[in-house]
Design brief:
Oligomer: single chain
Number of helices: 6
Helix content: over 70%
Number of strands: 0
Radius of gyration: 16 Å
Number of domains: 1
Order of helices and strands: HHHHHH
Strand content: under 5%
Length: 121
């Protein structure tokens, strides 16, 4: 049964990633925490495992074929990925020290801030 939930989470994250460029933080992490009861750090780490592989490769290819991104955009994405490599190291070192409840609440506040800014922009 758990495999079916994992597949469902992955499918939903993939579709929404293809549509909106989201997946890990907004779909996978909350689903693992709320549906399967993962602690916040475990949910975050599991999401990162899923993102290690080129989960967006086919979506990027589709956008490329449709002329929606250029070499400049690909370069920008690769530079962002380099920043994520370093940032992920520091973020994970901070994250493993947090109490699970504090981590969950901090994540909820982050999502509220993002949602509010999106709503009013």
């Amino acid at each position: 049964m758990q495999w079916a939930i994992f597949i469902g989470i992955g499918l939903l994250a993939g579709v929404l990633s293809g549509l909106f460029g989201i997946g890990g933080g907004l779909i996978i992490v909350p689903a693992l925490a709320l549906i399967l009861g993962f602690e916040q750090q475990t949910a975050s780490a599991t999401s990162l495992v899923a993102l290690l592989f080129p989960v967006g490769a086919l979506a990027v290819w589709t956008y490329w074929q449709a002329g929606k991104i250029s070499e400049e955009h690909v370069f920008a994405g690769l530079v962002i990925a380099a920043g994520m490599l370093v940032g992920g190291l520091f973020g994970s070192r901070i994250g493993i020290t947090l109490d699970p409840l504090v981590a969950r609440r901090a994540f909820a506040v982050f999502m509220l801030i993002v949602a509010t800014r999106l709503w009013f922009s």
